[in-house]
Design a protein that fits this description.
Chain lengths: 257, 238
């Protein structure tokens, strides 16, 4: 067992450092799919998080609880659900997303949504409530006040996006069921590890495993660094807040109380 | 022209608690009005209503004899909070925050900030992280930030609480220097000596109501209300 592992490890390192095109093709494909999935997730998750984190509405705690509950959703269950949606008999069958990289990316976006929504909305909820009053008493409009609050939680947003990317990068269920692990087309790192192991190609499976772990670790270490910078109150570049001002005019005192 | 702010039967409740209970008063520019009262008397709540941060449940506010709502109030009034709060920015950007969306040129912003920092004896602090400065420095910065937007109604909620005498004196001098006919200054404080030093008019609040209001000298030397007399003598419990 030990010999098998050491031999596989040696071959895996040879594969990685020899620049094997098959290995790197899968790595690029995985990064593309997860990058696209994370981008898509951000498009709807960040506005949702702002809505839940900054605005009071009836049933807010139910919505928050729903997203919190879905953080740990099994990817194989979600993969099966999406497979049924994307299959030719499914509701979204006409979109031809089954066995495509875009199909996997959409599935990963759905998987990552609860992570971004929960992390960001919780972070927005922890901002000192007086910061909101401060922005308002300095004359900021509603939008500008929200921007000021978001600016305070920008590092939490970075951490949430990194955590979501990691979740998508290491998932297998969606990639296998929606992508199918087609060689040269939809095979990503996780599906490649499973397939190569099943074929007894331990060295190449281990090479993919090492790359997968290295990328996840690199992202985790980077997020830890970000957290440290956050703790040390790292200053971000200024946001341009010059335009669309509330303005200070003394001719607006007529409105009734 | 001397500006004025009038409150007519203003009330603000927080659930069952009457934080501001049917308060009517008229404030004029050129005077420093000091709100005094025990903890929970409603000083901070009243200031928040005047600042437009909390909508009154009842009553009306008039600015220069015209009705004004909370949104418009926030354009003329600024509140400096008792617990200082700073954005996660450096000192310069904290001070510039209110000026940038008033479309002031950056050169003018810089000149104003330089003068404001000198005013509160914090020149050279521009690049420091605001949250890393001391409590006294933060309170002076908060005051400078409020001064910079030149509000017509300047509201100060115990700005010298827990500060060393040096910082407290700087703040008092800076506030006194802002006294003019086109500015109303209202300050809440526990410190009766401070009220004696800087107030033109003193208002005693108790349980959300105005108990007594008068010019400084008469208020302290000849209080008309028994509660006020007890409060001045340190005998009033909440």
């Amino acid at each position: 067992m030990s010999d098998l592992f050491l031999d596989s490890l040696q071959q895996a390192l040879n594969l990685i450092f020899s620049g094997n095109p098959e290995v790197y093709g899968i790595v690029y494909r995985t990064i593309y799919v997860t990058g696209l999935g994370t981008f898509l997730a951000c498009l709807w998750s960040i506005p949702l998080a702002i809505l839940i984190g900054l605005y009071s509405f009836k049933g807010r705690w139910v919505v928050r609880g729903f997203f919190n509950a879905f953080i740990g959703i099994p990817t194989v269950a979600l993969g099966l659900f999406l497979y049924l949606l994307f299959s030719h008999q499914g509701i979204l069958g006409s979109l031809d997303l089954l066995y495509t990289l875009n199909g996997i990316a959409i599935g990963q976006a759905v998987l990552e949504t609860p992570i971004i929504v929960s992390f960001v909305s919780n972070a927005l909820g922890t901002v000192d409530i007086q910061l909101r009053d401060l922005a308002r008493t300095l004359g900021a409009s509603g939008v500008r006040t929200d921007l000021a609050i978001m600016r305070e939680t920008v590092w939490s947003l970075v951490l949430a996006i990194a955590a979501a990317f990691n979740r998508g990068f290491g998932e297998l269920g969606i990639a296998a069921l929606v992508g199918g692990g087609l060689f040269g087309m939809t095979r990503v790192l996780t599906t490649a590890i499973t397939i190569e192991t099943n074929f007894g190609h331990f060295s190449i499976a281990l090479a993919y495993g090492i790359i997968l772990m290295s990328i996840v670790l690199a992202i985790t270490l980077t997020t830890n660094l970000v957290e440290r910078l956050k703790r040390e109150d790292f200053t971000l570049p200024k946001w341009n807040i010059r335009k669309s001002a509330t303005g200070v005019h003394n001719n607006d005192h007529q409105s009734s109380a | 022209m001397t500006i004025s702010l009038q409150l007519k039967d203003v009330s603000k409740n927080f659930r069952a608690v009457k934080a501001v209970d049917n308060v009517s008063l008229q404030l004029f520019g050129g005077k420093i009005i000091v709100l005094v009262g025990v903890n929970g008397a409603g000083k901070s709540s009243l200031l928040r209503v005047i600042a437009g941060l909390d909508k009154p449940d009842n009553g009306q506010l008039l600015f220069n004899n015209k009705s004004i709502n909370d949104k418009s109030l926030r354009q003329v009034a600024t509140l400096v909070f008792q617990k200082t709060v700073m954005f996660s920015m450096n000192v310069y950007d904290n001070l510039a925050y209110g000026l940038r969306f008033r479309e002031m040129p950056e050169k003018e912003i810089k000149e104003k900030i330089d003068a404001a920092l000198a005013d509160v004896k914090l020149s050279g602090f521009e690049k420091r992280k605001a949250k890393k400065t001391s409590g006294g420095e933060q309170q002076r910065l908060a005051l400078a930030r409020a001064f910079l937007i030149e509000p017509e109604v300047l509201l100060l909620d115990e700005p010298t609480a827990n500060l060393d005498p040096y910082s407290a004196t700087i703040i008092e001098k800076a506030v006194l220097a802002r006294k003019s006919s086109d500015r109303i200054i209202v300050m809440a404080t526990h410190n009766l000596n401070q009220a004696r030093r800087i107030a033109d008019q003193v208002i005693h609040l108790h349980a959300g109501r105005i108990v007594e209001s008068g010019l400084r000298q008469g208020f302290f030397e000849n209080p008309k209300n028994e509660l006020t007399r007890k409060f001045i003598n340190g005998e009033l419990e909440f």
